[in-house]
Design goal:
Number of strands: 12
CATH superfamily: minor pseudopilin epsh domain
Order of helices and strands: HEEHEEEEEEEEEE
Shape: elongated
Oligomer: single chain
Strand content: 25-35%
Helix content: 25-40%
Distance between the termini: 89 Å
Number of helices: 2
Length: 180
């Protein structure tokens, strides 16, 4: 007995002189024509993805290091300007110790009638990435009249990420400039 004609009509539909299959596998159909992707296609796709990753890693690493350096320069510059402002506003001395060993700065103040500096809060990180260096370690003193001096190091120091160095210079009146 042969299958009914309606089954054949369900498998194939005629529309505008084209036949569309409903995806039902018929007995005797060659299954190799319906196979997925070949091993060569998979290997080519994996090779392209690997090549793109190999190219992207150095580019993103370099961009990240550049970002870390810019961020550290902004943090240090902002902290210096903030400490100077605090000295002027409060009317007493402030000191900022920039520590290259642990990438922090410590702000201290000398509130009258005190004759020594006391820490204001704890150390603050100017870089958390570990790939930025400061040279030399510097201690700056800020006076109520706006004057800035270096008690350790100098008014010029460098921040570096190993490939790029930015030089931070503080004038005696507290202007901060950065040169690439």
């Amino acid at each position: 007995m042969s299958p009914p004609q309606t089954h054949s009509r369900l498998n194939n539909m005629m529309f505008s002189n084209r036949t569309f299959s409903l995806g039902i596998i018929r007995p005797g159909k060659d299954l190799s024509a319906m196979a997925g992707i070949s091993l060569i296609e998979v290997l080519v796709a994996v090779g392209i993805a690997t090549l793109m990753t190999v190219i992207a890693i150095p580019v993103s690493t370099s961009a990240l290091r550049s970002y870390h350096l810019s961020s550290a320069v902004q943090r240090v510059s902002g902290a210096i300007q903030g400490a100077r402002y605090q000295a002027i506003k409060s009317g007493y001395h402030y000191r900022m110790a920039l520590n290259s060993a642990n990438a922090t700065y410590q702000l201290s103040s000398m509130v009258p009638p005190a004759t020594t500096f006391s820490n204001v809060g704890g150390p603050v990180y100017w870089s958390t990435s570990g790939d930025i260096t400061l040279s030399p370690s510097t201690t700056l003193e800020f006076y109520p009249g706006g004057k800035v001096t270096a008690t350790t190091g100098s008014l010029t120091f460098a921040l570096s990420n190993g490939t790029t160095t930015k030089t931070v210079t503080i004038s005696t009146v507290g202007n901060v400039s950065v040169t690439p």
